[in-house]
Amino acid sequence: MNSAEVGAMQDPAYYDAPIKALRMLKRVRGLEGTFFLHEGVLLKADTLLSEQQNAAFVVEVNALISQFRNAKRPISRALFGFDGGNVFIFHAAPFTIGLIFSDFGKAEIIEKATEEYFQKWAASFRIPPESVAGLATLEFDGSDRIVLQNVADSNDDSEAAKTETTIVANAPEDGVPVPEDQIPPIAPLSGDTTSGELESSEEMKSDLEPAAVEESTVSLNAETNWKSFREKIENLFSKVVGRAQAKRLIERELTSMGVTGNGRLSPNQFRPFGTKVIQRVKDRSLRKQLEIEMISLVEAHIPNFE
Amino acid sequence: MTSTKTILIGVNGDRVVPLSGDATDEERSRFAREAEGLQARAHQIGVAIGMTSVLSSAAVHSDGCIAFRFAKSSSEEFDAKGVLRDGDQFTAFSLHRAVE
User: Fold this and answer.
1) Does ipTM top 0.90?
2) What mean pLDDT comes out for the span A49-76?
3) B residues 51..70 contacting A (CB < 8 A)
């Protein structure tokens, strides 16, 4: 490719025809929006979303692509199902197309149509045809009926559960595509802790010590109450992140509050703890909604104990 | 990374167990890490366009593909179910179908 061609490809006008062609995709019933990106820059968004949402979408799609590229396994396609719609992303560097559609049943048609679109424009885009070649369909008859039983049984003492090995989702390793902005900061356990944090930690210990030596009904109730509250907070937080992630974030928060192992919080710490966990949610409206639910959980758990 | 087997995986809390196939510890661990990374990114993409709950995700990359979905109801007896395939690439919709 000579420098004139390279220059022409940097000009957004060069993509007028393929962008127009992209509109043809919108003939697919249920397709609600299209994005066309070149080198991570949005050239055209044809959606009903606000400009701000379009921009935010582009940022996140670029982050997804970078995440896989940094892990040395560049992504070519992604399909996400949400409660209110679906997103299909097709990436053939340096081009990315994002499609938003409502009916998940149309995913196959939309993916195939995008494949065809890229194949048609591969020469103009100067991308290797093999990078946009049609993919095979995974025919996987993963009959899981019998083994699923093992998953359910893994919490009990059945023989099957005993033989089933399980592993815990560990912290990300090098080269694994986990976004850095999703890894919450680990609160300092010593050295940098403020006196306020130390006080709460001491308070916690004084709360725990009697519970550890007394086998009274009160301590048992407190234990049950704490476990119930923790589980409910975990369920609540699992609405926005995966359960394993929610569990780990909660453990980190507890560690930062000085609670480890079988330790527990006193009921008057339930709310500050819940608030700290919810603060991890970036979306303001979602955070507000979770906060309301969290407060009602706190209220439901304080009377049980006191 | 050289095998071409497809493994079906179930996730219950932080327990990752094979539902079909003979997934090794390394494969299950990798699935957990990759699925978590993908889920986190999917969540961010959803938030950007006003969708809050991620139901399912699939990604096709140069080393293979991965897909998972969360349980649709409590009767499903697992929190999430996923599929991992090394070496080969398949259409994203068919990956979703594999975890249905």
Assistant:
1) yes
2) 95
3) 51-63, 65, 67, 69-70
